[in-house]
Structure formats: structure tokens, C-alpha cells
Predict the structure.
Amino acid sequence: MRPAESPNANLTLESEDNTTHLILDVVDDNGEFINGAQTEVDVIASNGTISTHKIAQTGPGRYEVTLETRQDQTTQLRIRQSRYGKMRYRASRAVTARYPEELRLQQPNVELLKQLSAATGGRFNPSPEDVFTPLGQSGRSVTPLWKLLVFVASVLSVLDVALRRVNLTRFAKNE
């Protein structure tokens, strides 16, 4: 497994429309805010292009930037922060493409469902008791044949070996 990221950093991504707002809050081991660090993010688009952006400090220990990210593709973000030439924080995140509109949860089309149930002889919105009530119709049952087929294959295999090993011409000459 990958080692856990620094417990002294909190990275938040908020995506909306075609933008992603990145917020990085960092403290040192004593809980003091880390100020004046050089913080950058590489934005890697799904076509492989890389653009680097500086992340500005907006408050004590807080660094923020708003990035353009497309909704129809996945974008990889590589965040790194250094101070006094020493790497302090490094992370990688992905901003994923949102669901296509046809896959979103929507309210059912009640009128269409009523029309379909009437056209097929079904019932619209039956109660749970009605769903499990037998209709007096019988159905077919499925019988698995694998046991029978394995038995027949075993018998034929033994018969095949026996016929190859036994010399039947020897018995035919004695008659």
C-alpha cells in the first residue's frame, strides 16, 4: 500500500461546472501554520497535456487556486509544496468526469409506465402482497443435466479405454 499522506495537511477539491477549486491547509508537527511555502499543482488532462499553476497563500497555512477542468474528462492533479528548498508535501488526486445526463437518477415517467402496464396486461404499482400472489399459472422447472452428462462421459471414457486395451480379434479367432 502507498504510505499515508501527511497528517499535517488537508487537501480539499470542490468541482463545479468546468472549474475545480483546490484548498490546501497545512501545519507543521507542532500545529503551527506553514506560511510562505512554494506550492504548485500540475494539471494533467486526459490527452496528456500538462500545465503547471502556482497555488497562492490566502490565509495562515491555507493555499488556494481555481483551475479549469473539463466535465467530460478525467483530470489528474499533482500537488507539491516545498519550503526552504525542502519538499514538505506531495499528493496526487483525480477530478473525474461527471455522469452523463442519461445516467443521472431522475423521477420515473408515471404516464409511460401506466401505458405500458395497460398494453401488456400488467398492473401499475401493485402492492407487495399482489406481487407475490400466485396467479394460478404453472411454469416450467429447470432440471440441471450436468450430473447425468458427467456420468455418461465417465462410462464412455472407461468403455473407450477398455476397447483400446482389450484385443477383440483374439476372441474372434477362437469361434
Observations:
- The mean pLDDT is 85.
- Helices lie at 110-120, 128-131, 146-165, 168-174.
- Residues 55 and 65 are 5 Å apart (CA to CA).
- The longest helix spans residues 146-165.
